[in-house]
Amino acid sequence: MAKRITDRVTWVGKTDWELKHFHGNELSTHRGSSYNSYLVRGSEKTVLIDTVWQPFDHEFVASLREEIELGSISAVIMQHNETDHSGALPELMRYLPGVPIYCTKKGEAIIRGHYHPQGWNFVNVRTGDTLSLGDVTLTFIEATMLHWPDTMFTYMSGEDILFSNDGFGQHYATESLYNDCVNHDELMYEAEKYYANILAPYSQMAIRKINEILSMQLPVRMICPSHGVIWKENPGQIVEQYLKWADNYRERQVTIIYDTMWNSTRIMAEQIAAGILQADPTVTVRIMNAAKDDKNDILTQAFRSSAVLVGSPTVNNGCTYAISGILEMLHGMKLKQKKAAAFGSYGWGGEAVRQISASLAASGFEVVNEGCRCQWVPDQAEIERVRNYGAELAVQLAL
Q1: Which CATH superfamily is domain 253-397 in?
Q2: What amino acid positions are annotated as catalytic residues?
Q3: 285-332 pLDDT, tens per residue?
Q4: DSSP characters over 131-153
Q5: How remote is the C-alpha of 217 from its chain's centroid?
Q6: What pTM, to 2 d.p., does this model score?
Q7: What span, in angstroms and rounded, lies between the C-alpha atoms of 369 and 389?
Q8: Which of 44, 50, 42 is nearest to 14 (CA)?
Q9: Helix H or strand E encompassing 275
Q10: In the prediction, which pLDDT does 380 show?
Q11: CA dist 221 to 10, 85, 217, 372, Å?
């Protein structure tokens, strides 16, 4: 159902309460999501900004037809062409032959690669290009690698709205539409999780792009992303938060990530945590099992932390499947200025700790020591040794 945002702007997207995984199975979406599409009416032209995911294409077009005569749409603006945004475009264009599609040059290439269209009318735009709708003007701002090469934002003068596509978004399903109508803590966690798991590798680009937009001194009354809520109350708060997250973000937190076969590595994780807290009771310590806890929540906690500890038993001369996956995902995040260490139990080889340390170092972490190993099941003496290791580690981490 369409929802009026202003006299000129109407939300015509789709709220997906059932979505639990995104990007295949790469990203968990515990609170669902939305695919936000916006109908913008000017005195002379009406345009559509973005569409929705392909499974909802017929539903999207049918709902759009209830809101407007499709022939009244003068142009379609595609800010980013991943299929959660462009999926309904082929169905829509059946009703809009010849209508121009405004996108970046790379956006056109991606649309062609996805849908192999014939006869579509592409108009390539760059930063500073404009589209007049009569009494309001849309200005396009390229946002390369936030988070795809084709991404752009669109600024609407008059209404002072920034349509930011994936920027400032969250996977958060709600019928309430605005940030001041939902639980603030839930919203900010989902915004952080979205940033950590999707945008963190492009943090330097995010800083440059946000500063570029701020230098344009555009008044922004609302930020309308393509997932989750619209930032209506104090929209600058999410911009400020992005600048913090992009600047090698870290809190006084240590996240301990482990997997275990017969609980020896679990015992080590808990005793290292006890040692850290014994040395510094003011630091936050999170213990997460890589085989049981959600991988994206683990990465969000790692993103938030000043230090990450990773532990695994040695299995077939290496670490477990779950820890290998987390290490690979940490590598892709390209986190900076974070410290790390490895630990683990073993029976006869014990190679996992060395391999974890090497992987963390290759991922940009400062590995502070050679790690901690225990053979077989730790007895009381070993427990004391591991706890002391945690206390000494707290000093090394200097949080």
Answers
A1: Flavodoxin domain (3.40.50.360)
A2: 23, 80, 82, 84, 147, 166, 194, 227
A3: 999 999 999 999 999 999 999 999 999 999 999 999 999 999 999 999
A4: EE-SSSEEEEEE-TTSSSTT-EE
A5: 26
A6: 0.96
A7: 10
A8: 50
A9: helix 264-279
A10: 97
A11: 15, 24, 12, 53
Q: pLDDT tens digit string along 4-36?
A: 999 999 999 999 999 999 999 999 999 999 999
The DSSP 8-state label assigned to residue 199 in this structure reads I
Answer whether 91's CB lies under 8 Å from 56's CB.
no
CA distances from 40 to 15, 44, 94, 158, 164 (A): 19, 11, 20, 12, 15
Tokens of 195: 């940033």
User: Exposure string (b/e) for 277-301, b if CB count within 10 Å is 16 or more?
Assistant: bebbeebebbbbbbeebebbbbbbb
State how far the alpha carbon of 217 is from the alpha carbons of 18, 225, 375, in Å: 39, 20, 61
Q: How far from each other are the two terminal CA atoms of the chain, in whole angstroms?
A: 50
- Domain 3-246 matching CATH 3.60.15.10: the answer reads yes
Domain edges within the chain: 3-246, 253-397
Please list the alpha-helical segments (H only) found in 99-183. 105-115
Beta strands in 298-337 (DSSP E): 307-311
Determine how many CB atoms are found less than 10 A away from the CB of residue 308.
27
Euclidean distance between CA atoms 154 and 281, whole angstroms: 47
Round to whole Å and give the CA distance between 77 and 89. 11
pLDDT band at 136 (very low <50, low <70, confident <90, very high): very high
Question: Do residues 96 and 70 make contact, with C-beta atoms less than 8 angstroms apart?
Answer: yes
Contact 155, 163 (CB under 8 A): yes
Two tokens, residue 91: 């169905």
d(CA 40, CA 45): 8
Tokens of 200: 């963190």
For residue 372 the two structure tokens come to 């901690």
Residue recorded with tokens 């009494």: 135
* Residue keyed to tokens 């400062």: 366
